[in-house]
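Standup notes, structure subgroup. Blocker cleared on the flavin-adenine dinucleotide input:
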Amino acid sequence: MGRKKLIVIGGGAAGFFGAINAAEKNPNLDVTILEGSRRLLTKVKISGGGRCNVTHSCFNPRDLVKNYPRGEKELLGPFSRFQPEDTIAWYESRGVKLKTEQDGRMFPTTDNSDTIVKCLLSAAQKNDIQIKKGMLVKSVVFKDNHQFLVQTRDGEFIGDYLLLATGSSPIGYAIAKKLGHEIIEPVPSLFTFQIKSPLIDELMGLSFPEAELSMVPHHADPQPKKKFKPFSFKGPVLITHWGLSGPAVLKLSAWGARELAASNYKASLTINWVNISNKIIFEKILERKNNLPKQSPRTRTLDPLPKRFWLRLLDVVGVDESSCWSDMSHQKIQDLSNLITHTNLDIQGKGEFKEEFVTCGGVNLKEVDFRSMASKINPNLYFAGEILNTDGITGGFNFQNAWTTSYIAAVHLSTLQK
Ligand SMILES: Cc1cc2nc3c(=O)[nH]c(=O)nc-3n(C[C@H](O)[C@H](O)[C@H](O)COP(=O)(O)OP(=O)(O)OC[C@H]3O[C@@H](n4cnc5c(N)ncnc54)[C@H](O)[C@@H]3O)c2cc1C
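Run returned:
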């Protein structure tokens, strides 16, 4: 009997990782990667600002899944079998060492994504994987004999197994749909917020390490049936030249991705810039007034606020250069406290986040068996990576999703026929 053929559509992170592991685990499998563009592993190359944030130092699958707004439940099983620890070991056994940054993100010690690209290319070559570039797959037909006919502009391929790893490509979604799968409408995740407000204009670069954010998208339905529970997160926030960014903002964008898309990226945002209660902030300001009656409030900031932000707050509540603390009314102190702990801003649109961008949406998770990543609809069809309706927040979680799901698919494929 001839060798069984695995065709992998997509030469990205998930496609390469799946192909390599399937070939390594079952040398009897004939593996081909079809990549539509002229380049391989493009996103790996540009990822993490050219450094490739390969994974995250989070080693408990139950904690790990909490970083996935979509896929939290389904990824628990796969992460119990292949998680960041396994990713680290996989690369290390192929000569690539990873290091951990303070926030848990993991990069190659070379700080260069080429290290990861080269490692994957060399592992593919070592395992005799055929790689065909510029081979954009137009359609896939499932034949009566359980084989797949893969059609490209430049020819046809026949495979016994198919791994669909086309990321967020519309053609990939169309192929999955034609093979019987429901596609949850793709919308962007991981973006920043466009906000114009006199409180933050021209203060780009200021950061607030412990802010607390709460967001309610302007609902398309003016009378929603149930009361909307705001999305809330604590964490660092950064003022940019177009609005707000930072980990807490990116988390809001990920968890609220669908609702924000429905509201055309219009939402109300409430910020406590320091995550300290209004009462305590009020008392801190009052203490300042009582201890330094003759001093100008503009002389010194109220910790932990950056000085430029403190001056802006004073401008907004109307405390000018000539005032001293003794001039400050109770009402002004209350206004200041309210601004610090309860700023209301309008999100007016979606900004970019150049470091990372992912799509929420894709193949309906109910139609995939996460023990094997096989389709529950079409025998011998597998999915891995961003084509699935799974996505993580920024920090290496999206690549971990690609490594894990493709690895699980490869393990299953390797057991089918040795
Ligand atoms: C700028 C940027 C930076 C990022 N940085 C990070 C990071 O540091 N860490 C992290 O965890 N995540 C990061 N991400 C997210 C991460 O890159 C993706 O989640 C990951 O690449 C998904 O892998 P994939 O293999 O599923 O899809 P992709 O990497 O998108 O690969 C899919 C491949 O399929 C090919 N393809 C599509 N359709 C067809 C077709 N019809 N026929 C043939 N080939 C086809 C595409 O050309 C592509 O090469 C970043 C994303 C971006 C955009």
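Discussed briefly. The mean pLDDT is 95.
Next: hand off to the docking folks.
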